[in-house]
Amino acid sequence: MSTLGIIDYGAGNLSSVCNSFRANGIEGRLVRTADDIDGLTHLVLPGVGAFGDCSRALHGQGLVEPIRQWISEDRPFLGICIGYQILFDSSEETPGAPGLGIFRGHVRRFPDCGLKIPHMGWNKVEPRQTNDPIWAGMGDSPYFYYVHSYYPEPEDSSIIAAHTTYGSTFAAAVRRGRLVATQFHPEKSQLLGLKLLNNFLTL
C-alpha cells in the first residue's frame, strides 16, 4: 500500500494535488519537515510560484538534503512545474538562487516569439518512449495543462521523457529510474492527469 507525502513549502498547489490523488484512492500526507518523510513510499513536490521562493523555503525547512537523499535512493518521486524546475542547478527567474542540482541544467524563460507568455492552457505532449509505464493508457500524443513562463534545459538529453512545442520545443518531462518530473500540471489535466498520477503510484 502506498504512503504518499506531498511537500508543503508554502506555495504549492496543495489542495488540487491532494484532491487528485484522493480521486485515485490515496490520501496524501503533508510534508513540512524532514521527520515528516519517515514511513513514506512516494514523495511529491508540487509547484506554484517562483523558483527562488521554492529554493528558500526548502532550505529553510531543512528539506533539501532529505529530498536529495530520497532521489539518490531511487525512491518514487514526482516533481510538478516549479517542483520540476527546482531539480536543476539554477533559473533565469531568480539569478543566484540554487536549485537542488539533481540534474545539470538551467531554467530558461520563453524567448519573445510573438506568443503570449506565460504559456497557459492545453498543449500536446510527445513522449519519447510511449511504452514507458508512466505514459500507459494515454496514446501517442496526450494533452496536458500548462501554466509557466520558464522551462528547464537539461544538459543530459537522455533524461528527457517528453517534449512540447510552444514557439520553441522544450523538455516537457524528465524521467530517471523512479523519478518523474513534469512541466505541465497533472492535477489540472482531468482524466489523463489522474491517469499519470495513478501510473506514478505504481512505480
Protein described:
- This protein is an alpha/beta fold and 203 residues long.
- The chain has a single domain (4-201), classed as Rossmann fold (3-Layer(aba) Sandwich).
- Helix content is 22%, strand content 30%.
- The chain is built from five helices and 13 strands.
- It has helices spanning 14-23, 51-60, 64-72, 82-85, 190-201; strands at residues 4-7, 29-31, 42-45, 77-80, 90-91, 105-109, 119-124, 126-127, 143-148, 150-154, 160-166, 168-176, 179-182.
- The protein has an eight-stranded mixed sheet. A three-stranded mixed sheet has the order 5-6-10, with no helix packed on it.
- The mean pLDDT is 96.
Give the overall silhouette: globular
CATH fold call? Rossmann fold
Tally of separate helices: 5
From the 3D coordinates, which CATH architecture would you assign? Answer: 3-Layer(aba) Sandwich
Question: What is the H/E string?
Answer: EHEEHHEHEEEEEEEEEH
Low-pLDDT residue intervals, each spanning 5 or more residues: none
CATH class: Alpha Beta
Integer tally of domains: 1
| Overall mean confidence score, pLDDT | 96
Query: How are the strands ordered across the major sheet?
Result: 2-1-3-4-13-12-11-8
How many whole angstroms does the radius of gyration measure?
A: 15 Å
CATH homologous superfamily descriptor: Class I glutamine amidotransferase (GATase) domain
Instruction: Report the helical percentage.
Output: 10-25%
Beta-strand residue percentage: 25-35%
How far apart, in Å, are the first and last alpha carbons?
12 Å
